[in-house]
Amino acid sequence: MNENKYRDKSDEELILSIHDNEEKDAVDYIMNKYKHLVKKKAASMFILGADRDDLIQEGMIGLFKAIRDYDYGRDASFATFADLCISRQMYSAVKALARKKHTPLNSYISIYAKREGEDEGSDVALEDILESDSSLIPEQHIIDQENLNALEEAIERELSPMETQVLDLYITGMSIKQISAVLSRDEKSTDNAMQRVRNKLKKYLKNK
Length: 208
What we know:
Structural class: mainly alpha
Strand content: under 5%
Order of helices and strands: HHHHHHHHHHH
């Protein structure tokens, strides 16, 4: 495959060519180009009992579906559409595994998952989810491994299924807009769910 001939074309132009059966090799080019995104998303999700390579495979399936289903006239940019398809495919895999093991979904998502765009050593702290709150002393902001099980139990106990889904996806680095698209809900109800999550977790931390 000669990648040089594709570099001057936009993703959207390449997708149109693929759909018109003019540039079938461009599929491999797009798959290679976006594989880094798949790997970043796989790294942000932690699934007990599943190999990271399985998540990457699911993400690549989502990417292939994005190439197949992208509608130039209807959808946003291909990059945005691909991001959404990859996230949906991975999240479906998480839900399927959770159902299989009869385990709450939040147990499979690392509370300390790295957010997209952050350095390798940067973790999601609960304070990032809760935002700054001067009423919480610094010690209450620190959720160490010893308290992780208690926090997961609190999440399972206090949050509704929708709130748990929103939190799970937020921790992977998705925006409210992206989460609403994945869950097929409007942005307002998704944002309201995230606000309820913040309030409930703040209350939990204050009463610990």
